[in-house]
User: What shape does this take?
Amino acid sequence: MNEQTNVVPAWEQRFRAARVSLPDWADEAPDRALYVSNATGTYEVYAWDRSTDEHRRVTDRPNGTTDAELAPDGQWIWWFDDTDGDEFGVWRRQPFTGGPDEEAVPGVPAAYSAGLALGRDGTVVVGTSTDDEGTTLYLRRPGADEPEVVYRHAEYGGVGDLSHDSTLLAVDHTEHGDAMHSAIRVLRPADGATVAELDEVTGRTEPRGVACLGFAPAPGDTRLLVAHQRSGRWEPMLWDVAADTETELELRDEQGRPFPGDLSAQWRPDARSLLIEHEYEARSELFSYDLDTAELTRLDTPRGTVAGATARPDGTVEFLWSSAAEPSAVRSTSGAVVLRAPGAVPPGSTPVEDVWVEGPGGRVHALVQRPSGPGPHPTVFEVHGGPTHHDSDSFAAGPAAWLDHGFAVVRVNYRGSTGYGQAWTDALTERVGLIELEDIGAVRDWAVSSGLADPDRLVLSGGSWGGYLTLLGLGTQPDHWTLGLAAVPVADYLTAYADEMEALKSLDRTLFGGTPEEVPERWHASSPLTHVEQVKAPVYISAGVNDPRCPIRQIDNYVRRLEELGKVHEVYRYDAGHGSLVVDERIKQLRLEIDFVRRHLAPGTVR
Assistant: This one.
């Protein structure tokens, strides 16, 4: 609270304001829907009967719940039950109308989730991942008491989709050992036989990924919607797995040119048209595509980011939209606001500016937000996680809070980020971390030379992969940064690899081009612990003690070395996993970061 006015500050209002996700509806009961909300102060799953507008909280756990799915007939809600955010658990289910939870598929052991598919006939496929067995897919047939193993491999994979009649199962896999570019295998659940395979990695010098987007929602239809990278970017095509024929979609903009950036798609309920999402330069837009006429129609969405969209049986499209200046809302192409969170709308924030900077690997895109008043400003470089992710023109409470406190905010879509073509994403190999920091460093130099940023008040900050880059940047670019704020970071890469979940081990082997034993020099060069002696800036670290992605032991190793070297640092450990789903905890963490910055930057820097 503001001690003088007793008013909740705007930055805290943004965190406390209730939010809702895009509702997911049951295929055969479209009035039954699920969404996730923080309305009680913790992110939990809610059931929504759209015919009566009745809302009911489904889950109620101390550390929150976000992973849930509706059965096609709308009778059951499935949700993933882990322990305090460790992501290791089992699926449970609860009647849509309420009632006790039960273990959804007895006989499937606790594991990390590798997907779920619920068939209309009662067929269930549960994907699991463990360090000992890799990926295992369990199939439970209608009426069966016990599940059976339908797929197993040491490399990471996951459930793609079941066909409408449950006679085909698509599996996304990385058996070839390249976790950045998956392949697809289609199995026949009746006997486990392989029906078709789409692999554009094995035996190729330039691997291309493919990914399952879903079977056609029609009985007997064997068309699978697939995303592919054949043109150097993600775009959709149709693959009839029974006939083994492919139909690439000729998607063009209003000027008849191929779309820049990435394209994704999903089936409309009529199985004769698609909903297309175009993502480019940190923003997105929606189109409808008629498969019979090849007509592409733009849908009316504001400039900003669509964080999810779904096509309804009545022909409308619902989508979750926001911009950096405007909070998120679930909207419809009908013009209506579909679902509004209870309570007050959070305060808005400052629009982003697009900045392009020449970097060593090409032009780097950055999103910049400026506070009021003349520069140069104290500046936070907020580094995104992933690494195969990107910052977008979307609403985020964290950057908005720094703006409220008088900081400029810069977010960089470094090499490795998505949304700029495959070559940009795939550039992140072997020199892991160092490549991204070259791009961040180039934008940092622009920010200083342009008068935006005060070089004596530069904060490098990020969570997850962004936290990793923060610690690595403090050690490899010690004269660039005044302070560092690292949340749930990789700090000691060798120990992180030993302790992290199997899916991330697979990704790391791909990024580095081998294991720590095979290419030790690469792992050593990219580990923040290697460069800790060069750190000059005070560093603040926050970590979840149950985190399976950036485990606590490797963070403790880094902190211990900071202590031995007498480096200025603070560490905060909390009882959760890879971040917290509790609003009060998120506010506490940001308050601690603001306090750390206030104490270690020039007096008067923080408003």
Remarks:
- The radius of gyration is 24 Å.
- The chain is about 15% helix and 35% strand.
- Residues 1-5 have pLDDT under 50 and may be disordered.
